[in-house]
Write a structure and sequence with these properties.
It is a single chain. By secondary structure, the chain is α/β, with parallel strands linked by helices. It has 22 helices and five strands. The protein has helices at 3-16, 21-29, 33-37, 40-64, 71-79, 81-113, 121-137, 144-171, 190-200, 209-212, 221-250, 260-269, 273-306, 324-340, 349-374, 379-403, 405-437, 468-471, 498-509, 523-536, 553-566, 593-601, and strands at residues 486-492, 514-520, 542-546, 570-580, 607-615. A five-stranded parallel β-sheet has the order 3-2-1-4-5, sandwiched between helices. Helix 22 (593-601) links the parallel strand 4 and strand 5.
């Protein structure tokens, strides 16, 4: 992507947080009345410093990981598996809540302009999530001017709001407008200030997005990514600080009927077109911010599944080259949380802060370890930047966890703990299965002779002209005796393990032509598998099909269908190795390839799908 496109697309999550971050901070401070609101500017200055520190820290991450360095990758590589899982838990909590909070905040922007929709925010929000689900399952992606427009529109709207608002304030000598009478329900104390700081810090969500997407930039990728990150942090600081300044000057107080940003726009623009434009731009960027999670959440699940720490179904690409299962899980979780909290932004913020800053802390701590180990040029400066980011992020994480524990942060902390427990157990199960199916010396007896099935060509498909019976239209299942059936067994083999060997042995024992098929994601992987196959002895014909998008079922079905149309006289038997586990809870961890193939191949005559179980 060009920088002009990458900036709005990858910054939507971070910049849109200006719509709810300042309000979240003010909502806490207003509990102490006017005395509490006086702390808004000092707290905002502290948050701006935190934004700059974390932004500079992620510049170092981009330099160290030019191929993309998400929190999970950085934490796992430098701190170990469990910290990596904790970072992944924080990221996934962040992405789920990004959808819920963005939709909730977007609905608040809409209802501020159209109060009549207030009673229906939950069903409307769930419908919006369903639309995002459908669009992403169909392969919608963030790219081009269409997706850049909402971010630029929002930035333009806020900048115009700030310029006009500051101009009005200048006419009265920048004297702050008095706030309406407030009733304090809490006293001003350290706990209140820390809660407000933790809530306001949610304005930093999404600041790590550019470091995750470095390969998406035009060359030189890492340099363009760092430049884009600098612009994003600069815009975020400008929008956040100017919003707080206007709130202070105009005496705006949070209320449940209208958002702070809407109150500012109403006071500055009245009910003119500019007010409508501001609210529409706010709703649009929040919708785009929600959609960013649909790219990142399935990717984290894919990385976890690749490392055997999540079910393998999350490795699978759908027909539209999207991680469909991850998209569905994200939508279901976000919709459930959104509905459970009544579509309100305020109650969701305590959950949000914990996950975001847990991932920030572990990522930056991992970078400290990275620079300490590498010690290349300027490593001390880079280590200092990342150490500062890690320390400040840890302060916010601990603050949010403690001060908002009873407000919902306990749920986020519990979710992270359960996530680590479940993923660790999944990893243990996959390790047990891998040890059970692994080939050991003398575990599988290599045949002393090549297995040559009867019939010409050893079962390999021939490009020859089909038989006369087929030409005459006598295809389909008209065989009445065994002699009339011309079989070919097809054995898909993912890896040479005991389960695959058992399927191959079973197919060869039938004394009929056998063809092994391997789906490879790259030419290098195909070559490695061919070498393993030759080492085994090359006892059966092998066909390797390249699938660069890591899809397995679709290329396998395509090959079988083409083979069926090429040789309609053959009865094809697809023999699949199947892992059979003892406990029902482990069944979702293994692919149900046989069922999917049966559904896809059922319309074809003379195709049989069977499995050879391997019990673990």
């Amino acid at each position: 992507m060009r920088k002009l496109v990458a900036l709005p697309v990858l910054s939507a999550d971070a910049l849109s947080s200006v719509a709810y971050g300042p309000e979240a901070m003010l909502t806490v401070l207003v509990l102490a009345g006017g005395a509490g609101l006086r702390y808004s500017v000092p707290i905002a200055v502290t948050i701006v410093f935190l934004m700059l520190a974390v932004g500079v820290s992620y510049r170092q991450t981009i330099r160290a990981y030019p191929h993309g360095g998400g929190s999970y990758i950085v934490a796992t590589a430098n701190l170990g598996r469990v910290p990596g899982l904790a970072a992944a838990a924080g990221l996934m909590t962040d992405y789920i809540l990004t959808v819920a909070v963005s939709i909730a905040s977007g609905m608040a922007a809409v209802t501020s302009a159209l109060p009549s929709l207030e009673p229906d925010i939950v069903p409307i929000g769930v419908v919006v999530i369903a639309v995002l689900l459908a669009g992403n399952l169909r392969g919608v992606r963030q790219a081009g001017a269409l997706f850049a427009a909402p971010t630029y529109a929002f930035v333009l709207a806020v900048l115009v709001l700030v310029v006009v608002g500051l101009s009005d304030a200048a006419d009265r000598g920048f004297h702050p407008t008095a706030t309406p009478p407030l009733t304090a329900t809490e006293g001003v104390g350290l706990l209140l200030v820390l809660r407000a700081f933790a809530s306001g810090s949610t304005a930093m969500t999404g600041i790590e997005a550019i470091s995750n997407a470095v390969p998406a930039f035009q060359p030189t990728e890492w340099r363009n990514a760092r430049t884009t990150l600098t612009w994003m942090v600069g815009l975020l600081v400008a929008l956040f600080a100017s919003t707080i300044a206007l709130v202070h000057l105009d005496g705006i107080v949070p209320n449940s009927q209208e958002t702070v940003l809407s109150q500012l726009a109403h006071r500055t623009f009245g009910s003119s077109f500019l007010y409508v434009f501001t609210q529409a731009a706010t709703a649009a960027i929040l919708l785009l911010a929600a959609n960013t999670a649909y790219n990142d959440f399935p990717r984290v699940l894919y990385l976890l599944a690749r490392d055997h720490q999540a079910p393998r179904i999350f490795l699978r690409l759908g027909d539209r080259l999207a991680f469909s299962n991850g998209i569905i899980l994200l939508s279901a979780a976000a919709a459930a949380i959104y509905a459970a909290f009544g579509g309100r932004t305020g109650p969701l913020i305590p959950l949000y802060a914990v996950g975001v800053f847990l991932a920030f802390t572990l990522s930056q701590a991992g970078m400290v370890v990275h620079w300490w180990r590498l010690r290349d040029r300027h490593w001390r400066k880079s280590l200092a930047f990342n150490a500062t980011g890690a320390l400040l992020s840890a302060v916010v994480f601990v603050t949010a966890g403690i001060t908002k524990f009873t407000e919902g942060a306990w749920f986020a902390v519990l979710t992270v703990g359960l996530f680590i427990l479940v993923t660790t157990r999944i990893r243990h199960h996959y390790d047990t299965v891998r040890a059970a199916v692994a080939l050991h010396p003398h575990a599988v007896e290599v045949p002393s002779r090549t297995i040559t099935p009867p019939g010409p060509g050893a079962g390999m498909p021939r490009a020859a002209r089909p038989p006369a019976a087929v030409e005459a239209g006598a295809e389909a299942e008209s065989e009445e005796t065994p002699e009339e059936i011309h079989p070919l067994s097809i054995v898909p083999v993912a890896t040479l393990d005991q389960a695959g060997m058992r399927a191959l042995a079973y197919a060869a024992s039938l004394q009929q032509p056998v063809l092994a098929i391997h789906i490879s994601s790259s030419a290098d992987e195909a070559q490695r598998f061919r070498e393993y196959w030759n080492l085994w002895g090359d006892h059966l014909p092998l066909k390797i099909v390249l699938s660069p998008y890591r899809a397995i079922v679709a290329p396998l079905i395509d090959y079988i269908e083409s083979l069926h149309h090429q040789r309609p006289d053959l009865t094809l038997t697809v023999i699949l190795p199947e892992i059979v586990v003892r406990h029902w809870r482990h069944r979702p961890l293994h692919n149900r390839l046989a069922a999917r193939l049966r559904r896809a191949l059922r319309p074809l005559p003379k195709v049989v799908v069977t499995t050879v179980p391997f019990h673990v």
